[in-house]
């Protein structure tokens, strides 16, 4: 590989790309971005006709382990919307599948685990991921880094609690009853489970970092079901270890969960550089919970996208205004995003217009 | 009907029972209860084998319009658990069904509306409830008041926003996209819809009050999907009117929604005497959001009920301790409850033990 003064790829001492002008990285690191960065959770997905076409004949898990498909699907929203970040197309359960857990992703249901994990013996039998098991994902990251030019690539992983909820419940759950019963009723088994899952998450993220991702986002999708006290006792130490173990990569670490208004401070303390905020908490309120010195990401209500452009424009304006107040109150940066994933039936034209609107702000 | 000095039924000037010693009413009104009152949302339901037996051959809506069944189902948890309140067995959509909206409750799905309400014409065509349409429910209340001795009966109604979400979406919804699109995109139509639904809710509650309920609870089950700004602009005026229109009954008005941590202050301001709190916000934090002068209801995480008695006992203790701090901080009373409804597969023995534990506290 040749490197010239204008070719910034792989120029960083770590072997990682050096992207000093990327607005996403500037905002995450407290530098002044040339425009407000914006990307969307689930931007690579069913809202895009080109995605639906590609996925028509290929199952979700199969897609996630096909480097060319992962690369193409990850690039689609970057090409279409000109967002300021690509996020690796993947699924929360990919590292579990790779490690050998018997599971499938069932359309209309979500992940289904063949043998739920509910006892100490189940936890002992749980395989831990070794990096070689996610070679297709590492390959996809390498393909993407070569294709993405100056756009940063965000690595993707589920946090230990959310992985645990899938494993213990056997699939998606509304009330997380088995999970919380294990957590409260058998704390030793619980901590052993979350420790094992933290190992897997660390291995998954380190594989992505070694292949060149420019930031990571740790999704604790279900953490909002917990009280802050339970989060701090049973979950935070494990998420903290994940963040600590990837700190030496020197890339921004983003943390997000939906419905986590009560947990924003703790989720920041766990080691995030950027705290993602769902739409329920205005960013100028969120900064008070997170404290100064971190960047915030969010938080347009995704349902707004269906209310017509005038409403979208007004609501984006409100988010930007709240973000500006958060910046005055000590947040070091703002990355515009939705407060949750892109709904599948979103008109992608609206997303493209939101990107333009945020960039012009 | 005979009345003796010891028969307090119907002794109140309003014709309503006078229950000065009922712990629930004392706590709600800022008087000192002889023990801490406790009841459970969805206490009359699938957790009870006697309920499952009664309902085996009768559909949900059919049950809700059968006075004898409503009476029996409402009494079951009072007999079994010795809770401090009965709550009228009903469903959010009962007044809509009674008014003539074409809907059904489908097992495993929830309410399904034949023709979703999405236009100004749909709203104009929406029937409003007249009290005669809920005669079976009024009859059930009268049966219950005669059966309940000193235990208060809480009336039941859904708040306008939650009713609107069912009508606009056509059934239960995760993201309330159509609802929010109507709310933001066509505010006049929205307010007309919520006005009509407030009329129906008021008529439904007034029918229950006229028949003798001792308190009411207004469930805004889905309000937690809203930002506080949207709640205050699009929802609160209508809930406020509901509370105002039933104020002259002089009974405690309880307000609850799940995931409403950001809305607790506004939901109190809407006119509630008692604010129900989901499990995510400790009661000593909730009091700061609600402000002094109101009672709080809640808020054991229902998932705790599956974690074994030692855990239940410890977690109940934490709720009681937080409630005591809330009382010191200005809450005028505490009504123990779960932070959400009783999960269907709860062991009812555990609920009975929780009642005893709270009473001994």
Automatic annotation (TrEMBL), chains A, B:
User: Could you name the Gene Ontology cellular component terms for this entry?
Assistant: cytosol
SUPFAM superfamilies in the cross-refs = UROD/MetE-like
Main location group:
cytoplasm
What's this chain's function?
Catalyzes the decarboxylation of four acetate groups of uroporphyrinogen-III to yield coproporphyrinogen-III.
Positions bearing the site annotation: Transition state stabilizer: 91
| Pathway per the UniProt entry | Porphyrin-containing compound metabolism; protoporphyrin-IX biosynthesis; coproporphyrinogen-III from 5-aminolevulinate: step 4/4
UniProt-listed HAMAP family = URO_D
Source taxonomy lineage? Answer: Bacteria, Bacillati, Actinomycetota, Actinomycetes, Mycobacteriales
Binding locations of substrate: 42-46, 91, 166, 221, 340
Q: Which residues form the Uroporphyrinogen decarboxylase (URO-D) domain?
A: 37-46, 154-170
| UniProt protein name | Uroporphyrinogen decarboxylase
Task: State its Enzyme Commission number(s).
Answer: 4.1.1.37
Give a GO biological-process term: protoporphyrinogen IX biosynthetic process
- Source organism: Speluncibacter jeojiensis
Determine if rRNA-binding is one of this entry's keywords.
no
Q: Which PROSITE patterns match?
A: UROD_1, UROD_2
In its keyword annotation, does this UniProt entry include Cytoplasm? yes
Disordered: annotated span = 1-23
Q: Which family does it belong to?
A: Belongs to the uroporphyrinogen decarboxylase family.
Q: Which UniProt keywords apply?
A: Cytoplasm, Decarboxylase, Lyase, Porphyrin biosynthesis
Top-level EC class as recorded in UniProt: lyase
């Amino acid at each position: 590989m040749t490197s010239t003064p204008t070719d910034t790829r792989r120029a960083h001492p770590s072997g990682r790309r050096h992207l000093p002008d990327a607005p996403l990285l500037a905002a995450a690191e407290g530098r002044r971005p040339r425009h407000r960065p914006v990307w969307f959770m689930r931007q690579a997905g069913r809202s895009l006709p080109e995605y639906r076409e590609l996925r028509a004949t290929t199952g979700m898990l199969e897609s996630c382990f096909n480097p060319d498909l992962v690369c193409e699907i990850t690039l689609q929203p970057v090409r279409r919307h000109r967002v300021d970040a690509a996020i690796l197309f993947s699924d929360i359960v990919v590292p579990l599948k790779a490690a050998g857990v018997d599971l499938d992703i069932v359309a209309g249901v979500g992940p289904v685990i063949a043998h739920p994990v509910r006892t100490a013996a189940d936890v002992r039998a749980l395989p831990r991921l070794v990096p070689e098991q996610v070679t297709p994902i590492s390959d996809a990251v390498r393909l993407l880094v070569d294709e993405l030019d100056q756009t940063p690539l965000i690595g993707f992983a589920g946090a230990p609690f959310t992985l645990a909820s899938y494993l213990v419940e056997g699939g998606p759950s509304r009330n997380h009853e088995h999970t919380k019963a294990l957590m409260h009723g058998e704390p030793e088994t619980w901590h052993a489970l979350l420790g094992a899952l933290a190992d897997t998450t660390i291995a998954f993220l380190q594989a992505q970092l070694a292949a060149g991702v420019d930031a990571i986002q740790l999704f604790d999708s279900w953490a909002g079901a917990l009280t802050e006290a339970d989060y701090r006792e049973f979950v935070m130490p494990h998420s903290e270890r994940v963040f600590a173990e990837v700190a030496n990569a020197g890339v921004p670490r983003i943390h997000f969960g939906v419905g986590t208004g009560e947990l924003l401070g703790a989720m920041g303390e766990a080691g995030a550089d950027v705290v993602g905020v769902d739409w329920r908490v205005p960013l100028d309120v969120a900064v008070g919970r997170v404290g100064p010195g971190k960047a915030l990401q969010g938080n347009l209500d995704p349902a707004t996208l269906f209310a017509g452009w005038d409403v979208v424009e007004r609501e984006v304006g409100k988010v930007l205004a709240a973000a500006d107040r958060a910046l005055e109150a000590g947040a070091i940066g703002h990355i515009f995003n939705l407060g949750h994933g892109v709904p599948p039936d979103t008109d992608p034209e609206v997303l493209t217009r939101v990107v333009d609107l945020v960039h012009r702000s």
